[in-house]
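Entry 12.
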Amino acid sequence: MRGVGPKYGFGLYVHWPYCTRICPYCDFNVYATKDRDSAPLLEAIIADLHSTSERLGDHPKLDSIFLGGGTPSLLTGDQMARLIEVANDAYGLADGAEITLEANPNDILKAELETWASAGVNRLSIGIQSLDDEALHFLGRDHDADGALRAIERTQSVFDNHSVDLIYARPGQSLDNWIAELEQVLSLGAPHLSLYELAIEERTAFGKRAARGDLIPMADDDQADLYELTQSLCDAHGLPAYEVSNHARSEAYQSRHNHIYWASGDWIGVGPGAHGRLTIEGERTATEAARRPTDYIARTGNASTSLSRESTAREFLAMALRPTSGLDLVRFNTLFQREADPETIANLVETGQAVLDGSRLKLTAQGRLIADYIASLLAPY
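Predicted 3D structure (tokens):
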């Protein structure tokens, strides 16, 4: 299908679903580690990599691999190396391919980070979430602020390319509290920050507490104030936003893997519950692996669905508005088979929610606050 596909990037997402502790805000497909033997799941993922390669046909080499979860930093260096080696054998790795590992601070403190680098990992995404001990307790994290700081320091001794994740807009969090926390993180020198507003999802422990009235989410207006403050603080420290929730010192430190999602490239999804988007014989195909590890290991429940042009176009629009590089209106025309409404675009520009740069519509910080709503305005059907 024209307008999407591997010419816009080709990546691999590996979902490792096991965690030592399930965080109360987490809505991902995760399971407690307990005393599970990781070998059967590892072998199932490797088998999935091979079988997907056989049916995929001609594709370019991988631009990125993202080991996510769950907690993939629970894997050993040898296990990481094997996954990366199999991916290289099955698909090939492009020169300078980005290979990211999501890591918990406690795992960073225990591991020999050099073994992760030797395995092929060249980018770390560190799940700090906060530098406030009270907030970490509220978020159900198993590390404290001191451990987080030591984990960042250890990371920086081995991995230049690394990201720090934080969750803000927590119930009762003040502007002053967030300023102090964010400025402390900015002072540490990480070249990339992923800054997420706390989302209360229905199926999570927080969602159940909110349904009972035991937890009151922050009001939307207060969240918007914190978001705008976040943009100005990061700008002032040389880490401008390049996407709704992501900030980087320079283009070199932007997440190449996430850019594949935002650009509607192709990516393989392996591991329990992993989603993928692949272009096979000109058709846009959505893949979803069985969610339960036992079903995934037994190779039951994996699904593959051909996406309509309408669904593909809507996905493209929703994702393309997120990065600051903006929506390519030429690709919009190709996928929707009509032009974007000029009156809607003019109104977005007039109200300060977007700027028009040649054939690209770029949302401002104000516009990125309501990116999903703007996508609904622009969609012609």
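Annotation: The chain has two domains: 6-259, 308-381. The mean pLDDT is 96.
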